[in-house]
Design brief:
The protein has 119 residues and is mainly beta. Helix content is 4%, strand content 55%. It contains one helix and eleven strands, in the order βββαββββββββ. A hairpin with a 5-residue loop joins strand 5 and strand 6. The radius of gyration is 14 Å and the shape is elongated. It starts with a strand and ends with a strand.
């Protein structure tokens, strides 16, 4: 079993920046089995959508809506994934969820952290 705990959400003005962190914990075997990690978000009344992902090898993928503004990174030694968000827009307001996938295809979700972009 893998537990994902997000932090770093909050209220920020349009154009501002915020960094989210997600730490994975659990049995060493389960942690070692994690391949891709990433971030999804869900705005009120909308479906959950992919924001960005990163594999254990460092390959990244971004939603078109955040390309050039958000950067995903990963510290494998700390079992932590980060999402640096810049040039934030009101439409980025959502609950952001950390996500992990094991090499066997098992998925894990964090509890979510609220990001609100408003003046």
């Amino acid at each position: 079993q893998v537990h994902l705990v997000e932090s770093g959400g909050g209220l920020v003005q349009p154009g501002g920046s915020l960094r989210l962190s997600c730490a994975a914990s659990g049995a060493s075997g389960s942690i070692a089995s994690i391949n891709a990690m990433g971030w999804y978000r869900q705005a009120p009344g909308k479906q959950r959508e992919l924001v960005a992902t990163i594999t254990s090898a460092g390959s990244t993928n971004y939603a078109d809506s955040v390309k050039g503004r958000f950067t995903i990174s990963r510290d494998n030694a700390k079992n932590t994934v980060y999402l640096q968000m810049g040039s934030l827009k009101p439409e980025d307001t959502a609950v952001y969820y950390c996500h992990a996938v094991s090499i066997w295809g098992r998925t894990y979700w964090g509890q979510g952290t609220q990001v609100t972009v408003s003046s």
